[in-house]
Predict the structure.
Amino acid sequence: MSTYAYLDGAWVNSADAHLPLSIQGLQYGTAAFEGIRAYSCHTGGFPRPFMAEEHYERLHTSCEALRITLDNSCAELAALTSELIERNAIRDDCYIRPVVFKTMFLPGTPFGVRLAGVGHSIALTLVPMKSRLGETTRLGIATTRRVPDASMPARAKISGAYVASALAVDECTASGYDDALLLTSEGRVAEAATSNIILRHGGELVTPSLDQGILPGITRSLVLTYGRETSLNVCERPVELIELFNADEVILVGTGVEISPVTSVSGNPIGNGTTGEFSAALIEYFRKITRFAE
Ligand code: PMP
C-alpha cells in the first residue's frame, strides 16, 4: 500500500487514515470503486494512468446508482491520480484504487438500510503492480452467477456485487483454474470475475451485449474498436456457452488482466490451446498504446 493516500480533499499518511467501524459502506457494501493501471514508459518520468478519465466517468455513473453526487469532475480526479503517483514517488507500473463509500446517517435520517440521507467519502490509494499482459488463462465455469441487473445495476461497479466474483474465483481456483467465468441467470456467457470476455470466430468478434448484465468494460470497448479497425465484424449480442467451446480464440480483457488469451474452458482447449493470431496482434497493440501513447 502506498504511503500517501487521498481522502476527502486532503493528502494523508495511509497508516494514519482510520475510519469508524459503523460506516455503511463496510456494513452493507454500499460503495463504488474503480481500478486504474498506470504504466511506466521507456522515456522515463512517472508512470502514466491509462484511460483515467473513462474510469472516472464510470465512477460517476456508479455513484449515481448509490444516490451519490461526486463533487470532483473526471478531469480533477484524473489530476489527483497523477498527483498520487508523484507524491508516492512511484517509478514503476502501479494500480490506483479510487473508492467512494457511504459513511454515516445525515442528521434526521433514521437508522436502517437506505441510500438516501447517508454521507459519503472518497479515497484514492495505490499499490505497485506489474503488467501481466499476454499471460494466458485456464478458465473455469463457476456455479455462482453474475448478479442480475434486476437486483443491482450491472453497469455500476458496486463493491457489494463483488461477493459473487470472489465466490466464483474461490470455486474455480480450488479446482485448479486460473479464473472464473460467471454466467447470466439464464445460463448465457456474462463475464469473468473481473474482466469481460471476447470470442473470435473466423472474421467475427463476438461479445456479450450490455443487456446481458455485464460491466461495460473500458478495455472491452477499446478492443472492439481495434477489432473494427482491423476489419473484423464486431457483434455484441447474447452469447451461448456452447459458442465458447467452438471459438477460434477466447480473450479476457480488463484493467487487471489487461489482455489474456484463454487457452482452455473447463479443461477443453480453445483453438489449438495457445495464444491465437488475433490475440497476439492485440497484445502488441495494447503494449504500444499503454507504454507510448500520449
Ligand atoms: N467486469 C468486471 C466484473 C470487472 O470488475 C472489470 C474490471 N473493472 C471488468 C469487467 C473490466 O472492465 P475494465 O476494462 O473497465 O477494467
Observations:
- The pocket of 4'-deoxy-4'-aminopyridoxal-5'-phosphate is lined by residues 35, 165, 191, 194-196, 215, 217-220, 254-255 (CB under 6 Å).
- Residues 33 and 42 are 30 Å apart (CA to CA).
- The two ends are 27 Å apart (CA to CA).
- Residues 4-128 form a domain with the D-amino Acid Aminotransferase; Chain A, domain 1 fold (CATH 3.30.470.10).
